[in-house]
């Protein structure tokens, strides 16, 4: 079994994809816009009037694939929309952790500054500009 996160950005998906490309080196695997759907949306369906918005996309960060969409495109995405979870990203070393943390924090909000803990040489928590929570961690030496 394999679980992949699916995030809805309510009209800001293109912006989010570009941010994760720049900040984390995300590689887009596929992207389909509402206007490219092989079937017309049913009348009144979410996204039906948003042809250029992202119906479905997936991208890879390291070895992890995330799926994303503009969803209903109502523009309400924010910290209040993503609750009860964080994405954890393992950095190669302290320098990599600092780079990742700074990139994710740009336009976001630091929840716990990056620093040493009893379980990691570097760990921190940040909510990015889209309201997605991230935990940046360096694995402790074996």
Set out the fold topology.
Blueprint: E1 6-8, H1 13-24, E2 27-33, E3 54-61, E4 64-69, E5 87-91, H2 94-105, E6 109-115, E7 123-127, E8 133-138
Parallel strand pairs: 1-4, 5-8
Antiparallel strand pairs: 2-3, 3-4, 6-7, 7-8
Protein name: VOC family protein
InterPro entries: Glyas_Bleomycin-R_OHBP_Dase, PhnB-like
Domain PhnB-like: 3-137
Description:
The protein is of the alpha/beta class and 142 residues long. It has 2 domains: 6-69, 2-Layer Sandwich (Signal recognition particle alu RNA binding heterodimer, srp9/1), CATH 3.30.720.100; 87-138, Signal recognition particle alu RNA binding heterodimer, srp9/1 (2-Layer Sandwich), CATH 3.30.720.110. 17% of the residues lie in helices and 33% in strands. The chain has 2 helices and 8 strands. The strands form 2 sheets. The protein has a 4-stranded mixed sheet, covered by helices on one side. It has a 4-stranded mixed sheet with strand order 5-8-7-6, with helices on one face. Strand 6 (109-115) and strand 7 form a beta hairpin. It is elongated. It starts with 5 loop residues before the first strand and ends with a strand. The mean pLDDT is 89.
Shape by Cα distribution? elongated
Q: Determine Rg (CA atoms, Å).
A: 17 Å
What's the CATH class of the largest domain, please? Alpha Beta
- What's the total number of strands? 8
CATH architecture of the largest domain: 2-Layer Sandwich
What's the rounded overall pLDDT mean? Answer: 89
> What kind of sheet is the major sheet?
4 strands, mixed
Task: State the end-to-end distance.
Answer: 28 Å
How many helices? The count is: 2
* Strand coverage percent: 25-35%
How do the SSEs run, as a string of H and E?
Answer: EHEEEEHEEE
Work out the count of structural domains: 2
Low-confidence segments: none
The name of the CATH topology of the largest domain is: Signal recognition particle alu RNA binding heterodimer, srp9/1
**Side-by-side strand order of the widest sheet:** 1-4-3-2
